[in-house]
User: Fold these one by one.
Assistant:
Number 1:
Amino acid sequence: MTKRIFNFSAGPATLPLAVLEEAQKELINYKDTGMSVLEMSHRSKPFEAINNEAEANMKELLGLGDDYRVLFLQGGASTQFAMIPMNFLPAGKTANYVLTGAWSEKALKEAKLFGQTHVAATTAEGNHNRIPTMEEIKLSDNAAYAHITSNNTIFGTQWQTMPSFGDVPLIADMSSDMLSRTFDASKFSLIYAGAQKNLGPSGVTVVVIKKDMLENNPKTIPTMLRYSTHADNNSLYNTPPSFSIYIVNLVLRWLKEQGGVPAIEALNIKKANLIYDAIDQSNGFYKGHAAKDSRSLMNVTFRLPSEDLEKAFAAEATKAGLDGLKGHRSVGGLRASIYNAMPKEGCQALCDFMTEFQRKNG
Ligand code: PMP
């Protein structure tokens, strides 16, 4: 087999090798069914078992009980931007958004299509290089919910502690840090994540929803866009992205084998520190985009002294087997996405490459 490289892509992103090998082993004949999960009816017993196990594993890893459901939907996190206000923003109430990056701005844009909105805080002024303090966040009266983006994939910032707004339902886009660190999930009314970063392949969006949020979903919105439709039908109202759900379940099993979220968090801290230390010890050759107190454990964004050097860095890194490091155009420079499945060796290899690149070009 050809050698695997270290893939720092922001998503779809690297998956645990053990998961890929397991899927490969089972690809043609899944557990003696004589068929692949790719070919299997979503109404069959074996698929039902996968679907149920994936929900149970997700709840177990998040430490959630019977008052929550986990749904496996389609349309990406971007469809959640619209489904949330469609389901939870009635006339007379105001949807509150904390804007910490391009994805929260896109979420707000969709909410504006459906009702009244309020920007509770924004960090646009510093090109989203930090997370606002609780003092900066001002909710409106009659808040329907408060929406945050827990990790800002493009800018490389992350809420260090999750906020809380009393009785106002808290909703979070956790697309790029779901299950990467411990937090009290029971404080959230809804959490959503496109799977293609920390949870599995593209094609499935995970929605963790408190059951009380399923009670009054309006009947006037399309059936497929109503959360209760999917909860009532175990995510099987229509044909689900079955193979993606199967891979997500393998990733969740893998995560449990690693020791669950606390163990992966400890490793994620070590991994991120390798790269942040290389930035901090470079005498200004590498400059982090994120303020130190807002740094993400998942996406490390940094600049070099010139765009030419940044181009050279990305190109040489690719040749050295470190791929996907080119940053997003709204920040420029480089971005290392180091989700749960990125091994520590990958971060060490990047750190060594950074030191060597600076020695040659600094
Ligand atoms: N939210 C965040 C934080 C993201 O990083 C992304 C991008 N992958 C999205 C939302 C959009 O996700 P999707 O492509 O699944 O719609």
Number 2:
Amino acid sequence: MPAVVIVGAQWGDEGKGKATDLLGSRVDLVVKFNGGNNAGHTVVIGDEKYALHLLPSGILSPGCTPVIGNGVVVDLEVLFHEIDGLEARGIDTSRLVVSANAHVIADYNRTLDKVTERFLGSRKIGTTGRGIGPTYADKMNRLGVRVQDLFDEKILRAKVEGALELKNQILTKVYNRRSVDVDEVVEELLGYVERLRPMVADTPLLLHEALERNETVLLEAGQATLLDVDHGTYPFVTSSSATTGGACTGSGIAPTQITRVIGIVKAYATRVGEGPFPTELFDDDGETLRQNGGEFGTTTGRPRRCGWYDAPIARYAARINGVTDFVLTKLDVLTGFEQIPVCVAYEIDGERVEEMPMTQTDFHHAKPVYEYFPGWTEDISGARSLEDLPANAQAYVAALEKISGSRISTIGVGPDREQTILVHDLLD
Ligand code: GDP
Ligand code: IMO
Ligand code: MG
């Protein structure tokens, strides 16, 4: 009964979408288990490029059932917009299943996300402004609206009323905004009911039955380990559990059913939004990584902060997630650098520290200790086996494998599905 998890091992945008797509033809179901349309997964198949935000990347694989799990927060307008966009390009989305227990992003939470960020000023998180944080906060505060609530108007109205009782006070008295009308919110949400109804299911039961039939379930994370609300660089994180533990709670699949955990890690590092990033570059090398790697957000278009590979972070992600295999992505982006620094430890207040420090204060003070590896100039985008790589690129991969806490089973040398080196089978 194989359940396989894909998680981001850094700060997001490692290439989870491509990795999911690579396995899409070999799995029966792909489940998104956390986050919402704060995610942006780009998948390139031949001449076609898809940017997915809310839908699991498995939607692009014919024969695979895409599932939006209970741990996801769903913006219904975005859901149908994304479905329509894919259908217009000839992608069949009819197999999509949505959990009855997933929470719905109401318009007032999008508003609150944006005004809170403005209110925070220099203390802002740099969120995507999609209402993610306030919607998860409602879930934890037991004020949330779930997909199933849309099928009972009385319950829906009571829940929206309950949520707005407090939020309208905050919106008007703290943020000086206009209050939100209960009827308007209820009406908007009810407008989606007929289209939504056939997609909604008891997804934990559906997944359990699929596993019983020995089907393969792929659990695809949004965001990443260092953005996880528990294990990330809090408070500069997203509001969901983006790690393997979240794959269980966000889908209803038990930990004992997970057979593989695939960590996606870039050959360098990037981050969008605020928060600590020890290997961040502010020089020409950072700009070269940004330009060569196309490091601009899929969701917000913001330039991504770029830096060198951080091994303590990778080891941390390996531990937190129980990574069995790493997929190392974007190795091709390093082509042309004379030497490539890798952060192997930190220096914190004059001391060498090998692992992710315990406190936020220490992490803010962490200076990278670099080891330097010789670069290569050959174009590697056509490499399809380790032997096709120049010796220095092979040595770089071997060095990363040694210090990152798990084996590297797949290497990306370009955005296309085909631009991939398979070292060990990710599913076998
Ligand atoms: P995700 O959020 O983890 O799915 O990653 P994103 O899609 O936001 O960002 C990864 C970007 O890198 C996308 O534009 C991918 O098409 C691209 N990409 C993925 N793997 C590779 C690779 O091995 N080489 C290059 N050059 N680009 C890649
Ligand atoms: P994928 O799935 C990179 C970041 C935001 C911000 C913080 C909180 O494509 O890897 P939120 O809107 O979630 O409350 O913002 O998290 N963030 C991401 N960064 N990739 C993502 O998703 C992200 N989703 C959220 O930039 O710093
Ligand atoms: Mg992304």
